[in-house]
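Appendix B. Raw example, untouched.
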Amino acid sequence: MTQVAGVATIPLANSALDDLPVTLADVVAARERITPFIHRTPLLRCEALSAMTRTRLGLKAENFQKTGSFKARGALNALLRLSPEQRERGIVTLSAGNHGQGLAWAAAKFGVRCAVFMPETATPSKVAAIRGYGAEAHFAPVMERVFAAMEAHREAHGMHFVHPFGDPAIIAGQGTVGLEILEDGPETEAISVCVGGGGLLAGIAVAVKSQRPEIRIVGAEPEGAPTVSRGLAAGRPITLESITTVADGLSAPFGAETTHAIIARLVDDVVLLTDDEIMAALRLILERAKVLVEPAGAAGVAALLNGAAGLAPGTAAVATLSGGNIDTGRLRALL
């Protein structure tokens, strides 16, 4: 397994996409804003996984990012865009864990009060990290009821809501992953992106399609949490009645207008994966690439392993390893 050396490029504007909720200029500005605080994560190569997926595969290792996932990028960008009045009020969000960690980390760096609402089933290590950064951790019985609990708290305490994936500043921050993929892998022909609420998928789509519209972008979503794919089928964001997936990091209970508009316009396909397919990918990433990811972080590779991404043999592909926050006890049970 090797790391691909970075090559700087200057993004070019695409005026045809300037009507989207987030533009390439927003993503470039986000990178300038957050670069002093985050890691530039590696683009790794693994010959074994390339052979298994019949691609020339790169792995964008966001599990090595601050807080263990790409979420730190968008969270920090959103926090840095807040007004002094909003910072003073404090911020509140809902999360399966990774966005909460990213926002708690960002808030701690700038002395902003932060409250995170999660389901009671949230991964203990994610909850511990959120508290470790000094944020408040609150819970609802299941993910589908977290928003209502958070909204009641927000109204009672006058806090500012930072949307976990629909905030344009969040999307722009996540889009910096796409800029790095193009710079470190200029030969890239396709990108398979893990998708829950769609912030990462939308951000990468803006960053990539604005410069290289021929690159195929595919979202990889668990069939037990099909928020984005059902929203695309309905022509609008939808709310799920139930969620059942091993990939808790991809368990968004509802969609957002911003991500929906970008994904519907720019993303080539969103495919559904079974839990078994996601876990098979997780095991192979660990065994062959020697990299540990959480189930959500394996979805992009899973869509390549089962052929759902629809790539021709030999395609220069990149899969996002979106996060690596998994309890050792749960890992033992899953493996």
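End of appendix B.
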